[in-house]
Amino acid sequence: MNGQDTKRAVGILNKIMDHELAGVVRYTHYSLMIMAITVSLSCLG
Q: How is the chain split into domains, by residue range?
């Protein structure tokens, strides 16, 4: 691999990592929302 191929590969891997991290953040956000709804409903009943 030459320098240009390495830079291209690193760029592609960075994009993949960005998408993975965005998925983790989105999953965590929805998980916490569901947990909050469940806790608030359990306090009502």
A: 1-45
Q: Which residue has the higher pLDDT, 41 or 16?
A: 16
> How many degrees, rounded to 5, is the angle at CA 19 between CA 9 and CA 27?
155
d(CA 27, CA 31): 6
In angstroms, rounded to a whole number, what is the distance separating the alpha carbons of residues 33 and 13?
Answer: 30
Q: pLDDT tens for residues 1-30?
A: 798 999 999 999 999 999 999 999 999 999
Backbone dihedral angles phi then psi of residue 25, each to the nearest 5 degrees: -65, -45
- Evaluate whether 4 touches 12 at the Cβ level (below 8 Å): no
